[in-house]
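=== RUN LOG ===
request id: a7f3
mode: sequence -> structure
chains: 1
length: 439
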Amino acid sequence: MNRRNKDDHRSDDPSSSSSASNSSRSYLNRDKPSHKNPNRIIPDSTMATQGWRGRRPDAAESDVPLNRANSQRFRLQGQHDDDDEERGGCGSDPRFIVGTCPFMCPEKERLQRERLRDLAVFERLDGDPARTSSDLAVKKFCRTISMKDIEASDVRPLPVLDRTLNYLLDLFDSSDHPFVTVHDFIFDRTRSIRQDLSMQNIIGDQAISLYEKMVKFHVISHHKLRKCATKGPPTSPMHHLNMEQLIKSLASLYNLYDINRKLDCDCENEAEFRSLYIFLHLGSQGHNHIMGESLSFWLSRLPPSVIRSKEMLFARTILRLYHVGNFWRFFYCISKEATYLQFCMIETCINEVRAEALACINHGGYKLHPYPLKLLCEILKMKESDLEYFCGLCGLETSVDEMGNRVLSLKQTSFSHPKGGLNTYDYSGLEQLMREMKI
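=== RESULT ===
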């Protein structure tokens, strides 16, 4: 972020209330060094940042600090009172705390959880469920907490929150436990980090960096949980909860971008993270009107520098290609331009596009000219064995021609769209996307 206004900003309104609420380890921890003031506090101002329409009331709140009394703080329009969940239900209390806890988990909570044997597997000292240490225990998310009962020693300041998040993300690639177990632990503890940020009313460069890392965690988890669903017990509830927290985190991050723009600041990674919102509109199950307005109107409120960025141009191109049904360009553009983060968001609709491509080729081709599976694999970015199986799910039969090559016979009347969920097939070129990630 290039700051042109270096003054500290602190709210003077005593009635203001708080609100709240791999791919690879190196990618999750990617952020740019910042030399700006990380503890800047939100100034009193007005800004109409739209809410999330078309979702259930619990799905689209931001945990960026707001003012309930006079709406002078930055708030998502249409936001419901259950956004106090991320603030621990402390929305009516006017105080903001400056945290002093030097540990990842306050000592009082750590001792209590030892007595209750309430320690996650990652927090246990030598595997003992009743013993932990300050280097292992991480503060849990608390849904029902009152600001009146909170002391400064219960809240972690920004440097400790940054250290805690880095510690959590270092666990992200742990192979000692199933990914579902790892995700469940990080999922809860990152919500606690958001809660501490909100209770202290913190914005600024480092706050944005923390939110960007947490969004990355949810996006990459979105991809990994889909992989887990094909290898073990169903993870759809967890997948749903992860998507819900991703949307909330994006809402908060976008609010922070808007706030910092009013303070005459530029956010270096804004374009990529804004593009993720567009991908939420992909697929037959796309979240339409999430921001409480049409996508075109949401785009019209973004600054020209973001709209003209290559990340946003790519996202809008992918959305257009999806709607017009140009599957060849769809997959070509993904392979040429997508970042790994963007691919994780697009992935949910890829099988849907593949099925539409098979329908188009089957109905539009010549019966006497079977389609080579090898060529189809290149277009749909699939392995031949996966493609053959996928054709079967769509009711299409493959055969072997006189040259020994597998082909798809065309004009088959048995085609049907696959019912239910589909496996997550390997995407040819995904490894390259991961290798080209910026560190």
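=== NOTES ===
The first strand starts at residue 2 and ends at 3.
Residues 53 and 293 are 7 Å apart (CA to CA).
=== END ===
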